[in-house]
Amino acid sequence: MADKTDLARQFIQAIPHAKELGMVLEEIGDGTACISMPYDEKLIGDPQSGVIAGGAVSALMDTCCGAAVMCHPDAPGGTATIDLRIDYMRGATPGQSITTRATCHHITRSVAFVRAVASDDDTDRPVATASGAFTVESGF
Amino acid sequence: MNRPRPEPIQVVKQRRDAALNALLDSVPYIRFLNVTFDRRGDELTAQLNFSDKHIGNPFLPAIHGGVTAAFLEITATVSLNWSQIWSSIENGALDPEDMAKGILPRQPKTIDFSVDYLRSGLPRDAYARATISRAGRRYASVHVEAWQDHKDKLFAQATGHFLMPQDKAAKS
């Protein structure tokens, strides 16, 4: 089991776009993953407020949901997104990093179902939530 | 009978392109992802200019699902914003020079965004167009389609809902 988590960790840490966004894998294992992304001015989507672009939050959500699938005990290998829906509750506070926790709450031979929540320093008020379906693949 | 003489083509193009460029240049994330727009009249086509930093799965390789989502969301937001300000650009209420200095109308805010991944994103440029299904005073619904090689073989599509910027004067 530790091997699978290690593989998933290595895979996530090798994603070029995740590195580009400065994502840090905080926790992974047993169908749950936690990834943080530091605030960066190049990710600003609204120049008037300095709030991070929704797209950058989507990339964080997608990566974290994929990581949750890959480290699920019943997942044989890699995964790809089938669909991902994101609800944006509020703009993330400029200057604060965003942390996402994703859980693969159900998995079949073909499909993995995932939920995720993203927040900044104020963890009581989520910035965004996501729910998605992912493929279940035998290899990477 | 006395129809005013149409503006010269250069004037029209310069105004519209300057306004669009000001809108795009103001957003760091659009530059970071290297998304550009082609304009034909008021119609926009977004282009994701491929780079290795867009890769999500280095073994295939394939574009990161998050990049696809971000690209579609940028297309939706810019297209919606553009359609809202088009008439103000045309009638002179918005000056492209002021826009370039950062005097910009407020952007619509994303409420939710749902992406449908139809095939894996190949390591090359991608294109997208948005259709504004409805733009009301408070809410808008936008559909986006994205393709790479064949226009009718989409690799992703998305639907999103947006909160329109509220004009302060409209409140009273």
| Portion in strands of chain A | 35-45%
Reported by name, the CATH topology of chain B is Thiol Ester Dehydrase, Chain A
Instruction: Provide the gyration radius of chain A in Å.
Output: 14 Å
**CATH structural architecture of chain B:** Roll
Strand order of the largest sheet of chain A: 1-2-6-7-8-5
Key words describing this protein structure:
heterodimer, A: 140 residues, alpha+beta, Thiol Ester Dehydrase, Chain A, six-stranded antiparallel β-sheet, two-stranded antiparallel sheet, 3 helices, 8 strands, 37% strand, B: 172 residues, 32% helix, 32% strand, globular
What is shown here, in short?
Chain A is of the alpha+beta class and 140 residues long. Chain A has three helices and eight strands.
Task: Describe what you observe in this structure.
The complex is a heterodimer of chains A (140) and B (172). Chain A has 140 residues and is α+β, with helices and mostly antiparallel strands. Chain A is 24% helix and 37% strand. Chain A has a single domain (2-135), classed as Hotdog Thioesterase (Thiol Ester Dehydrase, Chain A, Roll). Chain A is built from three helices and eight strands. In chain A, the strands form two sheets. A six-stranded antiparallel β-sheet of chain A has the order 1-2-6-7-8-5, covered by helices on one side. The longest helix of chain A has 17 residues, at 54-70. Chain A starts with a helix and ends in a 5-residue tail after the last strand. The model of chain A has no long low-confidence stretch (mean pLDDT 93). Chain B has one domain (9-171): Thiol Ester Dehydrase, Chain A. Chain B is built from four helices and eight strands. In chain B, the strands form two sheets. Chain B has a six-stranded antiparallel β-sheet. In chain B, helix 1 (9-25) packs across helix 3 (65-91). Chains A and B meet through helix 2, strand 3, helix 3 and strand 5 of A and helix 2, strand 3, helix 3 and strand 5 of B.
